[in-house]
Type-4 uracil-DNA glycosylase
Amino acid sequence: MTTRTRYPGAAEYIPHTDDLAAVRAAAQRCHGCDLYRDATQTVFGEGAATASTVLVGEQPGNDEDLDGHPFVGPAGHLLDRALAEIGVDRDSLYLTNAVKHFRFVERGKRRIHQQPRRTEIVACAPWLVTELELVAPDLVICLGAIATQAVLGPKAKVTELRGRIVDAEHYRVGATVHPASVLRATDRAQAYTEFVDDLTRLFEAG
Protein backbone atom coordinates (compact mmCIF):
# COMPACT_ATOMS: atom_id res chain seq x y z
CA MET A 1 0.00 0.00 0.00
CA THR A 2 1.33 3.46 -0.91
CA THR A 3 2.22 5.76 2.01
CA ARG A 4 0.76 9.19 1.36
CA THR A 5 1.60 12.63 2.63
CA ARG A 6 -1.39 14.07 4.51
CA TYR A 7 -2.61 17.65 4.23
CA PRO A 8 -5.56 19.55 5.71
CA GLY A 9 -8.73 19.86 3.66
CA ALA A 10 -9.23 16.96 1.30
CA ALA A 11 -7.00 14.51 3.19
CA GLU A 12 -9.80 12.92 5.21
CA TYR A 13 -11.73 12.05 2.03
CA ILE A 14 -8.91 10.12 0.35
CA PRO A 15 -9.29 6.34 0.64
CA HIS A 16 -6.35 4.11 1.51
CA THR A 17 -6.17 2.36 -1.82
CA ASP A 18 -3.96 2.14 -4.87
CA ASP A 19 -7.02 2.01 -7.13
CA LEU A 20 -7.14 5.31 -9.04
CA ALA A 21 -10.78 4.74 -10.00
CA ALA A 22 -11.71 4.39 -6.33
CA VAL A 23 -9.85 7.61 -5.53
CA ARG A 24 -11.69 9.36 -8.36
CA ALA A 25 -15.03 8.16 -6.99
CA ALA A 26 -14.13 9.34 -3.48
CA ALA A 27 -13.27 12.80 -4.82
CA GLN A 28 -16.88 13.27 -5.84
CA ARG A 29 -17.77 13.46 -2.14
CA CYS A 30 -15.06 15.95 -1.19
CA HIS A 31 -16.06 18.87 1.02
CA GLY A 32 -12.47 19.79 1.85
CA CYS A 33 -13.07 23.46 1.03
CA ASP A 34 -16.11 25.62 0.29
CA LEU A 35 -15.83 25.42 -3.50
CA TYR A 36 -17.99 22.29 -3.61
CA ARG A 37 -21.02 24.32 -2.47
CA ASP A 38 -21.46 26.18 -5.77
CA ALA A 39 -19.71 23.86 -8.23
CA THR A 40 -21.76 21.35 -10.18
CA GLN A 41 -19.38 18.49 -9.43
CA THR A 42 -15.82 17.48 -8.71
CA VAL A 43 -13.74 17.33 -11.89
CA PHE A 44 -11.03 14.75 -11.28
CA GLY A 45 -8.10 13.88 -13.49
CA GLU A 46 -8.46 11.49 -16.44
CA GLY A 47 -6.29 9.67 -18.89
CA ALA A 48 -3.79 6.83 -18.95
CA ALA A 49 -3.42 5.48 -15.41
CA THR A 50 0.24 4.68 -16.04
CA ALA A 51 1.04 7.69 -18.20
CA SER A 52 4.68 8.72 -18.39
CA THR A 53 3.57 12.37 -18.63
CA VAL A 54 0.98 14.21 -16.54
CA LEU A 55 -0.35 17.65 -17.48
CA VAL A 56 -1.57 19.78 -14.57
CA GLY A 57 -3.78 22.82 -15.05
CA GLU A 58 -5.33 25.30 -12.64
CA GLN A 59 -8.96 24.31 -12.08
CA PRO A 60 -11.97 23.23 -14.13
CA GLY A 61 -13.73 25.96 -16.08
CA ASN A 62 -17.41 26.36 -16.83
CA ASP A 63 -17.51 23.64 -19.50
CA GLU A 64 -15.52 21.21 -17.39
CA ASP A 65 -17.74 21.86 -14.36
CA LEU A 66 -20.86 21.04 -16.37
CA ASP A 67 -19.36 18.10 -18.28
CA GLY A 68 -17.36 16.54 -15.45
CA HIS A 69 -14.17 16.05 -17.50
CA PRO A 70 -10.91 18.08 -17.56
CA PHE A 71 -9.85 20.23 -20.52
CA VAL A 72 -13.02 19.99 -22.59
CA GLY A 73 -13.69 23.73 -23.00
CA PRO A 74 -12.05 26.26 -25.34
CA ALA A 75 -8.68 26.04 -23.56
CA GLY A 76 -8.85 22.26 -23.77
CA HIS A 77 -9.56 22.39 -27.49
CA LEU A 78 -6.54 24.65 -27.97
CA LEU A 79 -4.42 22.23 -25.95
CA ASP A 80 -5.65 19.33 -28.09
CA ARG A 81 -4.70 21.25 -31.22
CA ALA A 82 -1.22 21.97 -29.87
CA LEU A 83 -0.65 18.36 -28.81
CA ALA A 84 -1.76 17.09 -32.21
CA GLU A 85 0.56 19.56 -33.90
CA ILE A 86 3.60 18.18 -32.05
CA GLY A 87 2.52 14.57 -32.48
CA VAL A 88 1.49 13.78 -28.90
CA ASP A 89 -1.58 11.57 -28.40
CA ARG A 90 -3.76 13.02 -25.63
CA ASP A 91 -4.91 9.50 -24.76
CA SER A 92 -1.32 8.64 -23.76
CA LEU A 93 -1.34 11.39 -21.10
CA TYR A 94 -2.98 11.93 -17.74
CA LEU A 95 -4.63 15.36 -17.42
CA THR A 96 -5.73 16.94 -14.17
CA ASN A 97 -5.97 20.24 -12.28
CA ALA A 98 -4.52 21.57 -9.06
CA VAL A 99 -8.03 22.40 -7.82
CA LYS A 100 -10.92 20.05 -8.58
CA HIS A 101 -13.90 22.43 -8.24
CA PHE A 102 -14.83 25.45 -10.36
CA ARG A 103 -14.47 28.82 -8.59
CA PHE A 104 -16.56 31.54 -10.22
CA VAL A 105 -18.79 34.58 -9.77
CA GLU A 106 -22.17 34.92 -11.45
CA ARG A 107 -22.79 37.87 -13.74
CA GLY A 108 -26.26 37.61 -15.15
CA LYS A 109 -26.51 34.21 -16.79
CA ARG A 110 -22.74 33.84 -17.08
CA ARG A 111 -20.36 32.22 -14.62
CA ILE A 112 -17.03 34.05 -14.68
CA HIS A 113 -13.87 32.16 -13.76
CA GLN A 114 -12.13 33.28 -10.58
CA GLN A 115 -8.58 32.30 -9.66
CA PRO A 116 -8.55 29.83 -6.76
CA ARG A 117 -7.30 31.13 -3.43
CA ARG A 118 -4.11 29.77 -1.89
CA THR A 119 -6.14 28.16 0.89
CA GLU A 120 -8.21 26.28 -1.71
CA ILE A 121 -5.10 25.12 -3.54
CA VAL A 122 -3.64 23.82 -0.26
CA ALA A 123 -6.92 22.18 0.74
CA CYS A 124 -7.10 20.35 -2.60
CA ALA A 125 -3.41 19.40 -2.69
CA PRO A 126 -3.91 15.86 -1.31
CA TRP A 127 -5.85 14.87 -4.43
CA LEU A 128 -3.05 16.02 -6.73
CA VAL A 129 -0.40 14.40 -4.54
CA THR A 130 -2.34 11.13 -4.62
CA GLU A 131 -2.83 11.26 -8.39
CA LEU A 132 0.87 11.80 -8.98
CA GLU A 133 1.79 9.01 -6.56
CA LEU A 134 -0.55 6.54 -8.25
CA VAL A 135 0.18 7.47 -11.87
CA ALA A 136 3.92 7.78 -11.07
CA PRO A 137 4.89 9.77 -14.20
CA ASP A 138 8.40 10.52 -15.38
CA LEU A 139 7.40 14.07 -16.35
CA VAL A 140 4.87 16.55 -14.97
CA ILE A 141 4.06 19.55 -17.18
CA CYS A 142 2.50 22.46 -15.31
CA LEU A 143 0.17 24.69 -17.30
CA GLY A 144 0.17 28.15 -15.75
CA ALA A 145 1.21 29.74 -12.46
CA ILE A 146 -1.30 27.99 -10.20
CA ALA A 147 -0.25 24.55 -11.42
CA THR A 148 3.44 25.41 -11.20
CA GLN A 149 3.10 26.57 -7.60
CA ALA A 150 0.93 23.59 -6.68
CA VAL A 151 3.64 21.19 -7.88
CA LEU A 152 6.85 23.09 -7.05
CA GLY A 153 5.78 25.33 -4.18
CA PRO A 154 4.40 28.86 -3.77
CA LYS A 155 7.67 30.57 -4.73
CA ALA A 156 7.88 28.89 -8.14
CA LYS A 157 7.37 31.25 -11.07
CA VAL A 158 6.22 30.07 -14.46
CA THR A 159 7.87 33.14 -16.00
CA GLU A 160 11.26 31.82 -14.84
CA LEU A 161 10.61 28.14 -15.55
CA ARG A 162 8.74 28.40 -18.84
CA GLY A 163 9.95 25.87 -21.39
CA ARG A 164 12.44 24.37 -18.93
CA ILE A 165 12.70 21.06 -17.07
CA VAL A 166 13.73 20.83 -13.43
CA ASP A 167 14.22 17.79 -11.24
CA ALA A 168 11.81 17.11 -8.38
CA GLU A 169 12.00 14.24 -5.89
CA HIS A 170 9.93 11.70 -7.79
CA TYR A 171 9.70 13.08 -11.34
CA ARG A 172 10.89 15.84 -13.62
CA VAL A 173 8.81 19.01 -13.90
CA GLY A 174 8.31 21.39 -16.80
CA ALA A 175 6.24 24.55 -17.04
CA THR A 176 4.48 26.69 -19.59
CA VAL A 177 1.49 29.02 -19.69
CA HIS A 178 -2.07 27.82 -19.36
CA PRO A 179 -3.77 27.48 -22.77
CA ALA A 180 -6.50 29.85 -21.55
CA SER A 181 -3.89 32.63 -21.48
CA VAL A 182 -3.25 32.03 -25.17
CA LEU A 183 -6.93 32.63 -25.87
CA ARG A 184 -6.76 35.92 -23.94
CA ALA A 185 -3.57 37.14 -25.62
CA THR A 186 -3.62 40.28 -27.76
CA ASP A 187 -1.55 38.50 -30.41
CA ARG A 188 -3.11 35.07 -30.19
CA ALA A 189 -1.14 33.64 -33.12
CA GLN A 190 2.20 34.56 -31.53
CA ALA A 191 1.09 33.32 -28.11
CA TYR A 192 0.00 30.02 -29.64
CA THR A 193 3.32 29.60 -31.47
CA GLU A 194 5.21 30.19 -28.23
CA PHE A 195 2.98 27.72 -26.39
CA VAL A 196 3.59 25.04 -29.01
CA ASP A 197 7.33 25.74 -28.88
CA ASP A 198 7.26 25.29 -25.09
CA LEU A 199 5.44 21.98 -25.34
CA THR A 200 7.82 20.77 -28.02
CA ARG A 201 10.85 21.52 -25.83
CA LEU A 202 9.28 19.97 -22.73
CA PHE A 203 8.23 16.73 -24.39
CA GLU A 204 11.57 16.40 -26.17
CA ALA A 205 13.54 17.07 -22.98
CA GLY A 206 11.29 14.89 -20.84
Remarks:
- The radius of gyration is 16 Å.
- The longest helix spans residues 118-135.
- The beta strands are 46-47, 53-57, 94-97, 104-107, 110-113, 139-143, 165-167, 172-176.
